[in-house]
Write a structure and sequence with these properties.
By secondary structure, this protein is mostly helical. It is built from eight helices and no strands. It is globular and about 70 Å long. The relative contact order is 0.13.
C-alpha cells in the first residue's frame, strides 16, 4: 500500500488511535532498551542500567495487555482466507491458527504476570505460547513465499505486455502504474517475511529457554528491534 499524503499530526493521531500503533512503539522502546543492555553500552554499575532493565521489563508486561482479544482477528482472517488448495488450507490453519492460539494463551500469561493467576503456571503457559507462535510463523512465512512467487509471475506478465506495447508503438501507462504498485507490494511482502523470520527466531529461543548458538542476547534483541521497525513502517503507511 502506498503512503498517503496528509498532515503529519493527523496521520500520527490516526496511527496512535490503533492498538497495533501503540503496541509497536512500545516494542521499539523495549527492544532498543534490550539492545543497549545486551551491548553493555551503559556499565551495569550505574543506576541508569538498572532503571533501563526495569523499564524494559515493565514495557514487556504492558505490551501483553494490548493482546487482549487479539486472537479474534486471526479467527476472522482464517474465515475470510482465499483458499484454493489443500496446501493453502493447511498453511492457513498453521499461520492463523498458530498465531491465534498464541494471542489467546498470551492473555493468561499477562494475567499470570499481573498476579491474578498463580505464577507457578507461567512457565508452562509461556512454553505453549512460544510453540504456538513459532508454528504460526512457519505457516505465515510459507504463505508469504507462495504469494511472492505469484506476484513475481504477475510482474513478469506485465513486463512482457510492456515490451510488446513498445514494439507495437502503443501506450502502456496503465501497465506501468500496475507494475509500480506490484513492486511496492512485493517489497512490503519481503519485509514481512524478514519480520516473521526475526520474530520466529525469538520464539525459537523462548522454546529453547535461551540456549543455543542463535540465542545470544544481542542477536535476539537486534532481531526484536528489526521486527519492531518493520512492523511500525508497515502500520504507518497502511494507516
Amino acid at each position: 500500500m502506498e503512503p498517503k499524503n496528509r498532515d503529519f499530526l493527523i496521520h500520527l493521531e490516526a496511527y496512535l488511535s490503533k492498538r497495533d500503533g501503540v503496541d509497536k512503539l512500545l516494542k521499539i522502546s523495549r527492544y532498543a532498551s534490550k539492545v543497549i543492555i545486551a551491548a553493555s553500552v551503559i556499565p551495569e554499575s550505574l543506576p541508569l542500567s538498572r532503571r533501563l532493565k526495569s523499564f524494559e521489563s515493565s514495557v514487556g508486561v504492558s505490551r501483553k495487555a494490548f493482546r487482549l482479544g487479539k486472537f479474534v482477528q486471526d479467527v476472522n482472517a482464517l474465515r475470510s482466507a482465499n483458499i484454493s488448495s489443500k496446501e493453502e488450507l493447511i498453511l492457513s490453519i498453521l499461520a492463523y491458527g498458530g498465531e491465534g492460539l498464541y494471542y489467546f494463551v498470551e492473555q493468561f500469561v499477562w494475567l499470570g504476570k499481573a498476579g491474578l493467576i498463580d505464577k507457578k503456571y507461567l512457565s508452562n503457559l509461556q512454553k505453549i505460547s512460544a510453540w504456538c507462535e513459532f508454528i504460526g510463523y512457519i505457516g505465515s512465512v510459507s504463505l508469504k513465499v507462495k504469494e511472492l512467487k505469484k506476484i513475481s509471475e504477475d510482474e513478469a506478465c506485465l513486463v512482457s505486455t510492456i515490451e510488446v506495447s513498445i514494439i507495437r508503438g502503443i501506450g502502456y501507462n496503465e501497465e506501468e502504474e500496475k507494475i509500480r504498485k506490484l513492486r511496492m507490494k512485493k517489497l512490503m511482502k519481503r519485509l514481512s517475511v524478514i519480520q516473521d523470520f526475526a520474530d520466529g527466531l525469538m520464539a525459537l529461543a523462548d522454546i529453547r529457554d535461551g540456549k543455543g548458538l542463535i540465542s545470544g542476547p544481542l542477536l535476539l534483541s537486534s532481531a526484536g528491534l528489526l521486527s519492531a521497525l518493520i512492523s511500525t513502517h508497515k502500520n504507518w503507511i497502511s494507516c
